[in-house]
Automatic annotation (TrEMBL):
The lineage of its organism: Archaea, Methanobacteriati, Methanobacteriota, Stenosarchaea group, Halobacteria. It comes from Halococcus saccharolyticus DSM 5350. Gene3D superfamilies: Winged helix-like DNA-binding domain superfamily/Winged helix DNA-binding domain (1.10.10.10). Pfam families: HTH_20. This is ArsR family transcriptional regulator. Residues 1-22 are annotated as: Disordered.
Amino acid sequence: MARWSSDELDESDGSALPPVLQSLDDSTCREILTRLNEPKSASDLCEDCDLSSSTVYRKLELLRESALVREYTEVRRNGPNVTLYERDFAEISIGIDDTGEFSMTVTRPETDPEDRLATFWSAMKEQS
């Protein structure tokens, strides 16, 4: 679970809060998020959302930077590997407390060891 305060909203150092809100403010990003009820490839999302591949990849990058979408490679024995995308949050809540401070909480889904290993290998692929 990630949590941010209103102090971080005012920071201009590229903290995670502004990209999350930017992603949620973007109707195309929201459309992609609604279509990711199961893991999908970028080409599947192009068809589902009736968008160009450049738009889908640009929006997926914003969603990945916001930590709202997870990318991983599915290794296939009978064909080429495929990169899949899935939502990486269960709930986002924004609140305000009695002192007037805003907070945002991003709740992540539980992951099993296989998912953690896939995430690890995807991160290793990005670094190489």
